[in-house]
Amino acid sequence: MQTSKPRVLVVLHLVGGNDALNTLVPYGDPLYYENRPAVHVPEDKVLPIDNHLGLNPSMAPLLPFWVQRRMAIIVGIGYADPNYSHFRASDIWETAEPSDVAYAGWLAKAVREIDPHASNVLTAVNFGRGLPRALSLSGVPVASISSLDKYGFFSNIPGISERKARLDVLARMYMSSDEDEEYHRVTAASAALLGHSSVALRHTGDTGIAALKGADILRSTNAGYKAMVDYPNSSIGEKLKGIAQIKLANVGTRIFYTSHGSFDLHALQVPNHSARWREVSEAVAAFFEDLRLHSEADDTAMFIWSEFGRRVRDNGSGTDHGAAGLALLIGDRVKGGIYGEHPSLRGSDLVDGNLSYNVDFRAVYSSLLESWLEVGARPIIGSPLEQVGLF
Question: Lowest CB count within 10 Å: 214, 217, 300, 372, which one?
Answer without folding.
Answer: 217
